[in-house]
Amino acid sequence: MKLKAMNQYTERLHLLEFAQQDVSVIGTTTAECMLSGALWATLFEIEGYVSALCQISPCKVLVTGGDGLWIKNHAHIEMEYCPDLLFQGLSRLPRIK
């Protein structure tokens, strides 16, 4: 969403897509800087939010989705990657009454 916003609300920034790759915290080109800013900002937002939640009550963090593995691999907090979390949850629905 951040990359889409950079493209839509500027005249000259192209729409970039994230491909599971190493992205440096500091880019050396416009495209690298855009990817870096979008990805690392998202990770830092997640870590900050989880940190605040865990101060209230201990919590387990599950990540899923297209960027979930990248987030788990770069986070400074413990996370579990669950690529099929949605389907696992849906499979339990018939048993819930």
Question: What would you note in describing this structure?
Answer:
By secondary structure, the protein is mostly helical. It is 51% helix and 4% strand. It has 4 helices and 2 strands. Strands 1-2 form a two-stranded parallel ribbon. The N and C termini lie far apart (36 Å). The model has no long low-confidence stretch (mean pLDDT 82).
Instruction: Tell me which oligomeric state these chains represent.
Output: single chain
Helix content: 40-55%
Shape annotation? globular
Task: Count helical runs.
Answer: 4
Proportion of beta-strand residues? under 5%
Summed over residues and divided by their number, the pLDDT gives a mean of 82
Question: What kind of sheet is the major sheet?
Answer: 2 strands, parallel
As a whole number of angstroms, the C-alpha radius of gyration is: 16 Å
What is the count of β-strands? 2
What structural class do the secondary elements suggest?
A: mainly alpha
Low-pLDDT residue spans: none
If strands are numbered along the chain, what order do they take across the biggest sheet? Answer: 1-2
N to C succession of SSEs:
HHEHEH
Instruction: State the distance separating the first and last CA atoms.
Output: 36 Å
